[in-house]
Amino acid sequence: MITARAAATFEPVGRSVAAARTFVRDTLQGWGLTDIVDDAVVLTSELVTNAVVHAGTTADVVCIRADTGVRVEVADRYPEREVPLQSNGGHHFGHPDREGGRGLLLCAALAARWGVEYTATHKQVWFQLDFPDRPAGTRAAGPALPSSALPIADSRVRVGVVQVDSGGLISAWNEDAQELFGYQPEQIIGKPLTDLAAWPHTPGTSTGVAEALLLSRWEGSYGIRGADGRVSPVYASHLRIRDAEGEPSTVCLLVRDRERAVLQSPMRGANVDTAESAERGPATDAFEVFIGSPAPDDLDGLLQRTVERARDMLDGDAAYLLLATDDETELEVRASTGLPSARQRFARVPVEAGTGRYGSARMPAVHEDLSAVPGAVPLLVNTGMRSVVTVPLKVEGRLTGSLGVAAESPARYSNEEALRLQFAADRIALAVERARLTELERLRRGSLSFLVEASDLLAGTLDRDQTLALMAQMTVPTLASWCAVYTVADQASEPELSYVLHEDEDRIDGLKALLMKIDPPEQVPTGGARSWSGPYDAAHAAALRTSLRSLSLGDSARPSSGPGASLATASAVGGETVVLPLVARNRVIGMLILGKPTDEHFRQENLELAEDLSRRAALALDNARLYSERTAISQSLQRSLLPPEQPEVPGVEVEVIYRAAGEGNEVGGDFYDLFPIRDGAYGFAIGDVCGTGPEAAAVTGLARHALRLLAREGFGGPAVLERLNAAILDEGARSRFLTLLYGELWPQHDGSAVLKVVCAGHPLPLRLRQDGSVEAAAEPQPLLGVMEDLELYEQTVTLDPGDVLLCVTDGVTERREGTRMLGDDGLIDVLTTCTGLTAGAVAARVLRAVERFAAEPPSDDMAILAMRVPEPEPADT
């Protein structure tokens, strides 16, 4: 049964053979199969050489782990180049010294089984190595050493044993773990290990703690946050196991980082042949410690392996590696091991640190006692390190970085150690620079992809709150651990905290409360990121006050949300915090705040990316502000063009439904009105202005107010519309034609209602009788705003009890789906089903029919006016 599988593809170039060897070696060692690694690497090297050198095609390498052994498959794309066969079907290799066939000869000699398979496009050679029997015996041994050469550890070495289940939750916690980190088992069991791990304590590892827990075996350094809030550096050995039911879990052995020798596996290559080593000399032997498994383009893995091997090579307590910026004026911390915390990650120090050339990173330097030269190595201030040796990394004479090894005791190093470290640095510098350039190119491509995606997302909304949320979500956790956005209404206003986001949702409220208590950063219109210590200072001051109050009250009176909550907030904002101005249209409209957790710094590349993002976000935020203002003005104007209230008409039911289409409900389009003219008489109108926008809104406002004014002056319907037509034409180029249905309504004492209507180019009003018949209640006449001399006339309609008059705009009748249109006939069909319904029910049924006619939402404004004369209630008998 297959239990694990790994695959990789290699290009037809010479370096692919070495890369394939590394891939197979790392895969099998990751599976814990060190006994068969060497044979597998030799066979893979031969088969990949055949594929990429002789066949000249890419090579696919697959490692498959089964219950009894490991199968390695190497395939190329040259099936025409066949393996030589004897006539009886067996394989024939010829003489062992001939050029071809040695790979197959080795397979026959070393592998338990092997074979060749052909397809139309591939040729695959595979071999299987069975697991060897494992009798009791020695796995690894070292020579007898004098006591002075043995690793130093406390008299009582504690090994914390922590078991983590398949969900990442702690299921076991032994006494040594309790002593090391201060947690009782009941406090910690059931919680994720990731809540405790300050990952990575040793920066530069390309694998996170969650991923490391899924590997079959893993060793390395990180930090564990103890009950007192401090981070303890540890060295960990993880082994993934499964129980009798097949449920996987991970056993983690943890020791203090300075006692790593208790758990650390022997380094690969440590058993170098003594004669060969003596022939090459100590400098070459020193370089052997830098040979490791990171891929050629894995910069973080390469740097981390470098500092760990450098520390081991010189028997130091700490080591670090810095990479130079492009202008070689600053060095950026990229990897360290053995330092009290990872606070130096991505911090920058000047090249000429310290006094004159003594502290220059361009030359090797040995500091016998740092306490005698304070600040000579800024990275080691307050770390307890007393002596240090530093050497430059150079490529073609150009400074690319600096490598240092430090010790807690003074006078540990001399020029001899500096020479050894410099030789090793010279041998690794080119690989580091190549990996750095590869990473830089990958980062630049990733940055471009990130900015393209961010621009698309920001351009996809004009909502202010959604824009703020997108800004925060794009920065957390990609660029920062937390962020806050301050907005500025105008130049005279103070910045207002508008949005807060943290990668840990449980900390958002505490972070927001903290930022609300402190003054916002100063507004600076100049571009670029600048540091801000406000959150850090406020959080630590609050934590200190809470701790002092707890001590004065005693443990019994200590609040449950006291020091722990304050320390948690302080750690959340304890790293570097930067402010990026949001500038749009030469005006500061806000600030984007980005922060890191305790003792972490930003990469310069991430800050540059954040600056690009802030410029795009500022413009999107300002566009959202302008759109919101425009929408508010549009909606306010739209409301002003509609009747303020609907009057009660005695003896007549009246219902109006108005739906403005379009985003933001732009002004213009359809309108309606219902108003009293004089005692017992009411005017009503429903119309549609051509187009939308300010010009249409002007005609809408002119029509509604002119109708009320002229009707109340005593003019009849035709005279009102003729004068309105003249007023529209007087607008000149701003005029718009208008369809309008205008009428006057007189409720009668006998329960009926008399209407006089004029239909100027508008959809005809429909009358629904009690028997279910529907007929037009007016005749069509010319629309307004086109001809100067109009001769209009009005028509009289009497609504009997139970009759309904329905007036709509063309947004109802012209409702479309593809080539179909609701039309007048469709509206009549709907109205015939409304017999006996109230005016409100008639209007609602018409609206529902319009909405259901097509899947897409309506694209035109709609106004529906329904008037019904109710039937008289039966007299009481």
Task: Outline the structure in words.
Keywords: Hydrolase. Helix content is 32%, strand content 26%. By secondary structure, it is of the alpha+beta class. The protein has five domains: 2-80 and 101-130, 2-Layer Sandwich (Heat Shock Protein 90), CATH 3.30.565.10; 160-262, PAS domain (Beta-Lactamase); 293-440, Beta-Lactamase, CATH 3.30.450.40; 463-541 and 566-626, Beta-Lactamase, CATH 3.30.450; 655-869, Phosphatase 2c, domain 1 (4-Layer Sandwich), CATH 3.60.40.10. Helix 1 runs antiparallel to helix 2 (37-55), helix 9 runs antiparallel to helix 10 and helix 11 (464-475) runs antiparallel to helix 15 (604-640). Mean pLDDT is 81; it is low at 85-100, 201-206, 267-296, 353-359 and 555-563.
Give the helices and strands, then pairings:
Elements: E1 2-10, H1 15-30, H2 37-55, E2 59-66, E3 69-76, H3 102-110, E4 113-118, E5 123-130, E6 160-165, E7 170-173, H4 175-181, H5 185-188, E8 197-198, H6 209-212, E9 217-225, E10 231-242, E11 248-256, H7 274-280, H8 282-287, H9 299-313, E12 318-324, E13 330-337, E14 348-350, E15 365-367, E16 387-395, E17 398-407, H10 415-459, H11 464-475, E18 482-487, E19 496-502, H12 508-517, E20 530-531, H13 534-553, H14 563-572, E21 577-584, E22 587-595, H15 604-640, E23 653-659, E24 668-678, E25 681-692, H16 694-712, H17 717-729, E26 738-747, E27 753-760, E28 766-768, E29 774-776, E30 795-799, E31 804-808, H18 810-813, E32 816-817, E33 820-821, H19 823-831, H20 839-853, E34 862-868
Antiparallel strand pairs: 1-2, 2-3, 3-5, 4-5, 6-7, 6-11, 8-9, 9-10, 10-11, 12-13, 12-17, 13-14, 15-16, 16-17, 18-19, 18-22, 20-21, 21-22, 23-34, 24-25, 25-26, 26-27, 27-30, 28-29, 28-31, 31-34, 32-33
Helix pairs in contact: 1-2, 2-3, 9-10, 10-15, 11-15, 13-14, 16-17
